[in-house]
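Following the same procedure, the fold was encoded as tokens, giving this record:
***
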Amino acid sequence: MINAVLFDYGGVLTPGGTAGSHAAMLSTQLGIPVPSESVEDLHRAFRVGSITTGAFVAAVHTRFPERLGDLDEHVWHWPELLRRHDRIYDLARRLRARGMPTGILSNVWPPIAQLLARAGAYDGFKPLVLSCEVGHAKPEPAVYHLTLRRLGLAAEEVLLIDDQPRHLAAARDAGMRVLLMTGEAQVEREAAALVGLPDDVPQGPGQPARTR
């Protein structure tokens, strides 16, 4: 029986922050192609909080002396990160209304986490397990076990929704239930079936329910 649901942020609660988006942002700001593998070590160190923003920026600038521009952390939010998948947020609200905990398990850079917190993107979710705060990132086994301890539940009672198969594979290895995000309607439908939510979704005051 599922007694809690965890959501990835990028690619699940928002269309932004999917795999490779960090390299795309760096490419845009530096004005040159930046392959993901060329900055993966820096990306990992930054997302687990082991280097500061200043150290990350300096390291990137040193690594790409041929760049045409400099990094500006004030535009790192990518507009897509502040857009919401409304149907997924609504799913989380419906789960909480039934007394089920909903948390976020996310790999994220420290300044991005701060921006999202200020924007209210994390409101209502608990536990909030952010890689830059806990020092571990998906798919490291430690981050899944830490999350389970915070929930106080057995692994088989927890469902993780993520858009990256390798993150789900590690969660499955830890004993969790998993659901791959391929679209809002798909997650809404399949998650509702897994946790036993009604199959109709209210559209708002005075509006009839939508039945899929």
Summary: Residues 86-97 form the longest helix (12 residues). Residues 21-78 form one domain.
